C-alpha cells in the first residue's frame, strides 16, 4: 500500500511511523487511520521491525480526529458505521511494542492514539488534552477510559470536562508520559529506547507487553496469576537459557527469539 498521510521507515530493527498531514496538524481521518493500521500490521509481520516508534511533527503529534470528516455525520452514520472501532481494535492488536514520541499537540483522538501506544516519550512542548467537550461531544477513542486509568479520576475529569491542555511537566508528574526531553532530542531518545527494546528477546518483550496490558483489564489477583504463569512459561524458551547463562558467564546475551 502506498501511503499519502504517513511516512514509514525501517532501520536498525525499528519501524518509524510518522503521521504526515501537516496542513491539518495530523488530524486523524479515515485515510490516515487506514494507512496507519496497514503500516502497523506490516511492521508486526516484518522480521526487520522489532519495535515501532509512532510520531508526528514538532508542532503536533495529532490534533485529534478530523473534525471536517465528522462535521456532517449523523448519529446513524457513526453508530451504524461504528466509527473508529475497527481502527482502534487493529491498533491495540499489535503485539510488538509501540512508543509514542509526542511533540506539540496531542489532543482528542491524538491524545488517545498516544495512549494506545505502550508508552509515551514527549518533548517539553507537548500539550495533551481531551477538548471534545468544546465540540459538543465526548472522547471516542479511550479518553474517558485510558486517561482515567493512567492519571486518576480527578485529573481525568478535569481534562475531559474543562477541555484544558496539560503541559509536559504535569503529564510526567501524573504518569501520562514516561519521560520528557528537550524537543531537539525527542527522536534520538525515542529511537534509543526502541533500540534497547529491539536488542531483547522478542518473545519476552511480547509477553511483558501482554502482562502489563492485562493489569488494566483484570483484578490484581488474576493479573498476578497471569504474570506468574507467563513467567513460568518463559522458562521453556532458549532465550531464558541464553539470558541466564550470559549473566553467569559475565557476557552479553545473544537472543534468538526462540
Ligand atoms: N480536525 C481537522 N482539522 C484540524 C484539526 C482537527 N482536529 N485540528 C486542526 N486542524 C486544522 C485547522 O482547521 C487548520 O486548518 P486550515 O489552515 O485549513 O484552517 C490547521 O489544522 C491548523 O490549525 P489552526 O489554524 O487551528 O492552528 P492553531 O495553532 O491556531 O491551533 C489547535 C492549534 C489548538 C490544535 C487547534 O487547531 C485546535 O483546537 N484543533 C482542534 C482540537 C480538537 O478539538 N481536537 C478534538 C477533535 S474530536 C476527537 O478527537 C474525537 C475523538 O475522541 C475520537
Kindly describe this structure.
- The chain has helices at 30-45, 67-70, 75-80, 85-92, 109-116, 146-151, 153-162, 168-173, 186-198, 202-214, 220-233, 238-248; strands spanning 6-11, 14-19, 51-55, 60-62, 98-102, 105-107, 119-123, 127-129, 165-167, 179-181.
- It has 258 residues and is of the alpha/beta class.
- The strands form two sheets. Strands 1-2-3-5-7-10 form a six-stranded mixed β-sheet, with helices on both faces. A four-stranded mixed β-sheet has the order 4-6-8-9.
- β1 and β2 form a beta hairpin.
- α10 packs antiparallel against α11.
- The longest helix has 16 residues, at 30-45.
- The model has no long low-confidence stretch (mean pLDDT 97).
Radius of gyration: 19 Å
Q: How many H/I helices?
A: 12
* Low-pLDDT residue spans: none
**Proportion of β residues?**
15-25%
- Alpha carbon gap, first and last residue: 31 Å
Helices and strands, in N-to-C order? Answer: EEHEEHHHEEHEEHHEHEHHHH
For the largest beta-sheet, the strand count, sense and barrel status come to:
6 strands, mixed
Average residue-wise pLDDT: 97
User: Helix coverage percent of residues?
Assistant: 40-55%
> What small ligands are held by the chains?
acetoacetyl-coenzyme A
Taking strands numbered 1, 2, ... along the chain, how are they ordered across the largest sheet? 1-2-3-5-7-10
Amino acid at each position: 500500500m502506498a501511503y499519502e498521510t504517513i511516512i514509514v521507515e525501517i532501520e536498525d530493527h525499528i519501524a518509524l511511523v510518522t503521521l504526515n498531514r501537516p496542513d491539518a496538524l495530523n488530524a486523524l481521518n479515515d485515510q490516515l487511520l487506514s494507512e496507519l493500521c496497514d503500516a502497523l500490521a506490516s511492521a508486526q509481520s516484518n522480521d526487520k521491525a522489532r519495535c515501532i516508534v509512532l510520531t508526528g511533527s514538532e508542532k503536533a503529534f495529532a490534533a485529534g480526529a478530523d473534525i471536517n470528516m465528522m462535521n456532517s455525520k449523523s448519529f446513524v452514520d457513526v453508530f451504524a458505521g461504528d466509527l473508529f472501532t475497527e481502527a482502534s481494535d487493529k491498533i491495540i492488536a499489535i503485539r510488538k511494542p509501540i512508543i509514542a514520541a509526542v511533540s506539540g499537540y496531542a489532543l482528542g483522538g491524538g491524545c488517545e492514539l498516544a495512549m494506545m501506544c505502550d508508552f509515551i516519550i514527549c518533548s517539553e512542548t507537548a500539550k495533551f488534552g481531551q477538548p471534545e467537550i468544546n465540540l459538543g461531544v465526548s472522547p471516542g477513542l479511550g479518553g474517558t477510559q485510558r486517561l482515567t486509568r493512567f492519571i486518576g479520576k480527578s485529573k481525568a475529569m478535569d481534562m475531559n470536562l474543562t477541555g484544558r491542555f496539560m503541559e509536559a511537566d504535569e503529564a510526567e508528574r501524573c504518569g501520562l508520559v514516561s519521560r520528557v526531553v528537550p524537543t531537539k532530542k525527542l527522536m534520538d531518545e525515542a529511537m534509543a529506547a526502541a533500540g534497547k527494546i529491539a536488542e531483547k528477546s522478542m518473545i519476552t518483550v511480547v509477553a511483558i507487553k501482554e502482562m502489563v496490558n492485562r493489569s488494566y483489564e483484570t483484578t490484581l489477583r488474576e493479573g498476578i496469576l497471569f504474570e506468574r504463569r507467563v513467567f513460568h512459561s518463559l522458562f521453556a524458551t532458549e532465550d531464558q537459557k541464553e539470558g541466564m547463562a550470559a549473566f553467569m558467564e559475565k557476557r552479553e546475551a545473544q537472543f534468538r527469539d526462540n
